[in-house]
Amino acid sequence: MGSADSKLNFRKAVIQLTTKTQPVEATDDAFWDQFWADTATSVQDVFALVPAAEIRAVREESPSNLATLCYKAVEKLVQGAESGCHTEKERQIVLNCCRLLTRILPYIFEDPDWRGFFWSTVPGAGRGGGDEDDENARPLAESLLLAVTDLLFCPDFTVQSHRRSTVDTAEDIHSIDSCEYIWEAGVGFAHSPQPNYIHDLNRTELLKLLLTCFSEAMYLPPSSDSSNTNPWVQFFCSTENRHALPLFTSLLNVVCAYDPVGYGIPYNHLLFSDYREPLVEEAAQVLIVTLDYDSSTSSSPTVDGTTTGTAMDDVDPPGPDNLFVNYLSRIHREEDFQFILKGVARLLSNPLVQTYLPNSAKKIQFHQELLVLFWKLCDFNKKFLFFVLKSSDVLDILVPILYFLNDARADQSRVGLMHIGVFILLLLSGERNFGVRLNKPYSVRVPMDIPVFTGTHADLLIIVFHKIITSGHQRLQPLFDCLLTIVVNVSPYLKSLSMVAANKLLHLLEAFSTTWFLFSAVQNHHLVFFLLEVFNNIIQYQFDGNSNLVYAVIRKRNVFHQLANLPTDSQSIQKGLQRKKKTPEPISRTNSQDGVSMEGSRPAAPAEPGTLKTSLVATPGIDKLTEKSQVSEDGTMRSLEPEASQLSPEGNPPAALSDGEPWSGDASHSRRDRRRLSSASSSGQWTPTPDWVMSWKSKLPLQTIMRLLQVLVPQVEKICIDKGLTDESEILKFLQHGTLVGLLPVPHPILIRKYQANSGTAMWFRTYMWGVIYLRNVDPPIWYDTDVKLFEIQRV
């Protein structure tokens, strides 16, 4: 039968279903088989031939028929998994049912009355001939998930058969050990199977159905309680799934082994369509969804140094019930870490690979899923995090992240990408090794829209952060705290900043210490505290190599004097706020000596009007996102117990860092303090008061810098007068050989603000991840135009 006939017959069946007012018996095979037995429809055909309005109509008007359709489709998948799909006809039926369920499930999830349907046992189900008890019948959801996992390791359908003989001795799907059929070499598996594009296509379709099953999460509104688990994921990642280990390994290896460049032959991807990429994307999406787990509510497996002979560490406690999280947290072999890190770095760097032949390499689009995966790896497996930081390989992750941050800074539709990039850097910056690694010279010249400089990876990081703060869009302001916390965390280890980076830091201080900026929001002065902490750390711990920064501090000394003499009377506060009205620009870009941007770079572009984006929940304030640790003489860290009052060191409550509304979890005493220190005007607007300014001005850590200026400024001025100098290089030479030993205050202990897992970020990751998956699945558009509740779909 031709494809046109087959589509016509399928469409006729759909019309019959929507027009029948009477329930159709489950035993009426002649009717139900029209949907899958004699048709050859692609997933795109199914989406076109089963319109949303008709699915909803059947759901409302003849619910029993929709129920029977779902039940029969699952039954066919179960039969296919039982038989092992040895004939072409059986495989076709399985794929058709798979496509049909992918189409229908979102409409089941969007209706609260239907959501429990798949978790019920269907009365009378399976009475067609067998007479098994309803008592031990499985819920439909479980039968569906188990059938899909069996089908993902089905010889000659989704994996290479190990038998080389005729059909009658085909492998029994229930006796095979699926660990021998892992899809790709890598973690815990050495053999790389022969690529087979038909198997890749079939796996991709089954994974699409799995992802659709898991997407029930999209139809529940975000809650501050992120522990409500997704029943589909929970069952799938439990011991009930006998293929959990080989499937986890297959997904991880398929992603990390993928090389989009195609064996180094330029234009290779244009010659044959790449069947691997859709599978890799689907695998990455399924993997991050199965790892959606709030680690703050559980004890994660302990990190111990033992190595056993297996790919997974056998440590106690066994860790979370979610086997995928459990397996991920127990990977421990160096070669496995190397394989994962190299793979993720290769894929993240792919969009940056600028060759002399444009379009010569395939450009991947799933970098956001990769960033979520990398985050999960570091968050759930501390050994992996230490491995990443052990060598300069971490820079192969850093550079792509800085590239994405810089590239997305003007684009409102990519706020989520900005957040995850910054979160990863915050997590890494809590470890001393990250700061140390940043001293490696930066020689890779990825074309980026930033000033040309010669220096280290630390310079690159500071220059990109400066660019984000001064020329990103308004919605990024909540990230400023995080960006500067990262710089504070690495500052004690930075051996030598370039002049370009030193000037950028002072330009930020200048912008953030204007009176109108300090007085215009309750938390703005935190940014000044962070920057002063950076200068203090470098002066106290890395004075010797940092003559550029010391010179920049001397040149801009008036900024520090103005801060020390900040007026606190009402009149000056009002005057400072008046100035704001004249200067609408949040941070002036003048006097930032931007210089020429790198060759071959394009300026960061805003989103095209009409671009779709998904909303995000607020992220917790920096005080909830991090916990303070003090670094001892020997380099070990000890956590500082938070004081009883949740006030930040500057004596007032940190504001929530939010993309929307801040979480209302603020302790009530901090609100009371805020009221005491500032008066709320009649309009309910916050207004600064002299008491409030005094409360933090008195704590500005200016002693070290003032002492440095007191000692060095007269010496520098003397040199200039004596030698008639106006030449920077002579002054820099003098500063290089100068010393402040014994002249500065006693060095303060190094404070690091380490990321700590919390339910607020767990919920943020859930909304971000599903938003990405929603927007990236456009062919077919699985969830488009359904009533999702986890986020809003907005147009820029």
TrEMBL record:
Residues 571-687 are annotated as: Disordered. GO terms for cellular component: Golgi medial cisterna; Golgi trans cisterna; membrane. It comes from the Eukaryota. It comes from Zosterops borbonicus. This is HID1 domain containing.
